[in-house]
Amino acid sequence: GPEWASYNLGVFLCTTCATGHRNLGSHISKVKSLKLGKWEDPEVEVLESGGNVHVSEKTERFVPACYRRPKPGDPHVLIEQWIRAKYERKEFESESAKDYTRGEMKGHLMKKARDENKYYPRYFVLSETESCVKYFPKESSKEAKANIPLSDVNVCLAPAKMHQDNGLQLSYITEGSTRHIYVYHESGHVIINWYMAIRSAKLNRLMVAYPSASEAELVPYLSTDFALEGYLSKTGPSEQDAYRKRWFILDHRKLMYHSGQMDAYPRGEIFLGHRDDNYSCTAGAPRNCKDQGYTFSLKTPERTYVLSAPSSEER
Ligand SMILES: [Zn+2]
Which segments constitute the Arf-GAP domain (predicted)? Predict the structure, then answer.
């Protein structure tokens, strides 16, 4: 159960949310431990008359459908900005359009260079009317470096991998290959606005394409966090091939592998099909292959991939 409460807002809080509330400052939220705090009668009365359900009727009255409400374990920036949106900016108390529901967003983001681990400011433009996200070397540049269709783009918060609290990963298909773009902004508010703006534009697109579907039915398709990411070793098709360490990303039915975890392009992509179509995954290596560590074989109609994980659990 909750261990904390905000005694001016009248809500009970878990440890994560209590930290977020403390970061708002005591002029917005006054946080106290339920067990260790000393409670005065008027403070208890605020909690009794408030309570989370009652308070959220006001603070979460107009949350746009595209907005991703955080769950425990979600990236820190998502939780922090949700709390700030509710209690500091009071974003959801009126029906007025939000910065991220206007179908248009422009501004500089720090973008990782394709072939080096350095970030440079680039000018990004989201346009719902053109149904794309573009970026330019400079605000004044005429020609976009990339024109990413909204139909193709996936947006994912990637703080751990990027070692960047406000890190965002955009992935899309270009010329038959997946391309990853890594960006961040020093402001968590700005990065969450971009995240929600792309989700909002995608939702509006889907609502036009599937007029009979409800918003709630379409929301799960706005963005995906990758199902699994991590290092595996992969060996080539011939017996002499050595195992090489690769960064793998599992995205629904597609397994991508990269030389490094922040690479712009995967070295290869494996579509994962159904058992009935000759796809299978078994522990161990085929007879003509070295077994290294926790090996497993992924069989597709075209090729058998022999992979090995650093531990039994990860296999
Ligand atoms: Zn919480």
Answer: 1-100
Task: Name the residues around ion ligand 1, CB cutoff 5 A.
Answer: 14, 17
Can you tell me the ipTM of this complex? 0.95
314 inside domain: no
Q: Mean of the pLDDT values across residues 289-315?
A: 86
Task: Report the distance separating Cα 301 and Cα 280, nearest Å.
Answer: 9
CATH number at 282 reads: 2.30.29.30
Q: What is the CATH number of the domain that holds 17?
A: 1.10.220.150
User: With 80 as the cut, is the pLDDT of residue 288 above it?
Assistant: no
pLDDT, one tens digit per residue, over 105-126 is 999 999 999 989 999 999 999 9
Contacts of 53 (CB under 8 A, 6+ apart): none
Neighbour-count burial of 279, counting CB atoms closer than 10 A to its CB (0-12 exposed, 13-18 middle, 19+ buried) = middle
pLDDT tier at 104, thresholds 50, 70, 90: very high
List the domain range (segments joined by +) for residue 267: 228-309
How many Å lie between the centroid of ligand 1 and the Cα of residue 37? 19
Cα of 100 from ligand 1 centre, angstroms: 24
CA 13 / ligand 1 centre spacing (Å) = 5
pLDDT at 312: 84
Number of domains present in the structure of the chain:
3
CA of 217 to the centre of ligand 1 (A): 25
Pairing state between β 243-251 and 254-258? antiparallel
Q: Cα(201) to centroid of ligand 1, in Å?
A: 28
